[in-house]
Amino acid sequence: MGTSDGIKMNYQIRTGLTEGYFKVLVAALATASLVGPLGIRLALAQSEQSAPTQAAPSVQAPFAIQYDGRVTVWADRTAINVFTQRIKILTPSAIAIVGQQQLTFVEGMETLETIEAFTQKSDGTEVPVDPANIITRDATSGLSATYTRDLKQRTIIFKNVQVGDTLVMTHRKETKQGVFPGHFFYSNIFAHSRPFSSAQVVVEAPNDLDLQVKAIGTGLIDKLDDSDGIRRHTVTLLPQTYLPEEVRAVAPVDRDPALLVSTFRSYEEMGLAYAVAALPKSVVTPEIAALADDITKGIEDRRQQAAAIDAWMKKNIRYVAVYLSLGRIVPNDAASVLRNEFGDCKDKATLMSALLAAKGIVSESVLINFGNAYTLPEPPTMVALNHVILYLPEFDLYDDPTATLAAFGVLASETYDKPVVRVGLGGAILARTPAMQPEDHTSHARTVINVAADGTVTGQTEESGTGIFGIMLRIASTTAQNLGADAAAERLLQAFNTPGTGHYDLGNSAEKVDPVTMKSAFTLSERFKPPAPSARALISFGLPHTTRPGNFLLGTRLNGRTSAFICLAGHQIEDIDATFDQSLPMPVPLVPLTIDNPAFTYRATFKIEGRTLKMHREFVSRVPGQVCTPELEALIAGDMNTVRTNVNSSYAFASAHVVQPTVEFTRAVASEQKLRLDFLYSLNPDCTSMGFATVRIIEQPKHGMITIENGTGFPAFPQTDPRFECNKRRSDGVVVIYEPESGFTGTDSVNIDVIFAAGTSRKGHYSIEVK
Long-range contacts: 550-553, Cβ < 8 Å, 24+? Predict the structure, then answer.
């Protein structure tokens, strides 16, 4: 695991932050104006409005890698790995990217010797790296160093690097003891996003050592030689196309060539090795038993007891990031973790397991990937296992005590639909965490906006969230507490390009119970100005913290995608009611929109009630699992673009403040029959519909009932109108229907106010004679 991966996991697990949010965080940290946790939400607010990413058909690699290694495994499961890496600089940008190299090793388990390191100039001249520029230091600092005192980082800084040069380094790493005593494993992934021009690894071991060696994926050739008591695999990488990492793609181990070496024959065997080391640490001491009783005092329901223990863990035991495969796999004993009041994932799982056991609730340790790997490739290594959570068989429930902002039984999005190794007193088994269900991950943002006569815009937003959206709201709550409720609201309004002032009511966000609810109030700095008749204007969507419908769950669009990508299930609802003063023009409602495809459903409705435009949008991602194919990307791309356009739509405004003359109509209908009172339409010059009119009944009929519904009919443009030819074809529009009371004959009348989709308006008075 590289350094950036380590930073990512540390931040994600501590805060419950999801993969998409971490990527936004990186972008925010690179922007000087987006400082602090709110930068996460600010950058996300901007990224949601961006157009789909276009994949380049062919990209020049910034550098090229040649890799040669020899891994020698001895009968006692110790090993020596001698490897040479040659990196040729092809572009100026590569100098900053690879001009210094970093390697990590665990000093108590491994030794790392840098045999040589130099810059080879294009004329063959070698410029050695000064020994002072080969630096070994602790790889962690602060609280994390408590558990990784012997994790070291070797940095090699090359000098005099120019385009056309080749950076050369040879290292010798000796494994004196494996992560699991008596076992050895090794992995090397040849990702297409790393521009290998050639690679070869020789793996050799005594014949009587049952060493599993496998080249997985396409593009690797494994040549086996068995002689003189040594079994030797020469694994060669065929030339492969350089493909930059695609946004939200699954991990390289799920899709690219890889060499895996292990003395384990199965993941169950690896799980048993973990059980031997870890499970004895969950001893229930008198102090732990007393604490469990205190946490669950007055709670009889066993599931609620487990939830209370989970909440206590997340509140009182701090997380310290140490990744399972990076160093030691043995947790500290539960009593020590309780005494220290902090721990890594396996420590927190150990203490929570002991607390549960004190109440007679059985739990199992779960080895899992916290990231974007969704397979467990054979033979077993720790390449895809870097995290420990718990499984409670009594409730058939997975729980992560390190997901500090998640409710009981809610996982971070990166750990749903994942293969796992479950370890308990009954042994070890392979299993899978559940796939996400839309009803478990819901977001509902309700915003009320009022536009005064002078254009002042005020409003309130109320949000509720469950599952991963509950996590997002708790992140927002933490941000508001760190910045201050007023400052956080102000920054978020700025991020939405609707500057103003605001305030938060954090609701129950401090609790670990779903649904989470938060409220906010705001006043925009800029006053509303009615647009010109031919122009359009945006309407504020308030202060939501979770993403708007259609964003986040299915990720960023990428045309020409080649890799499977991560996709999430969930249900997003947005309701916005915008009320305008009587003196102001009214917005023209958009055409209702419905989309149904294999991955998602989208519904959007817009209607006028009095002086209020009511907007309702609903997005349901119902993907069956968290890995989606490139073919699905191509299938949904057009529909997702339609959703994006709809969510970010601007509105035309009718000139409602201009007094329009009332148009008089006379109609006749037979008693006991319905009358098609009017057909209202707005058509483009090519006869396509602009959308449906909004009809408001000013005066109801005294002896009948009015029905307004979408329908079809024939327009009636005058011969002088360019759209006269449209009269020959049926068009979409709004039908106004009058139905007299049973038995009534005589005269009746109706007054209506119409706002057409084209932005015009009129009033109509209908005199009706019922015969």
Answer: 550/602, 550/619, 550/640, 550/643, 550/644, 550/647, 551/48, 551/644, 551/647, 552/20, 552/48, 553/600, 553/619, 553/621
